[in-house]
Specification:
about 25% helix; 3-stranded mixed β-sheet; alpha/beta; about 25% strand; about 140 residues
Amino acid sequence: GRNLLCNTKYVAKEILQYAEDNNIRIIHTNQGYSKCSVCIVSDNAVITEDDGIAYLLKNYQIEVLKITKGNVYLSDDHYGFIGGASGKLNNEELYFSGDISSHPDYDKILEFLNNHHIKPVFNKYRRLNDFGGFIKI
């Protein structure tokens, strides 16, 4: 959309310049992997487990659903993040890499998605897994 969430110290200068040239609001976060921590629901709505990002984005009038940490699989030693387990398929559908209905906050997630007219698409026979996410081009 019209927002770029990133750690401005580490993002390529060309990306920052592109954002400035195209009136895209640059929102600095200290999080190094911003997209992994943010499930983009719409231009002005996200889901995250990250307290800092939730607080920051609310200050930019972005609607945030804060969910419980630790319910996305990454490896046997580490948990993953909702942003790395999801991606928009189109304006009406949001893909999850596995069974989002098994998440303890599923009812809140489903209500949030419904409020934004977004349908979740997922395979209930797979574990919700952080695969790094994707961005549709």
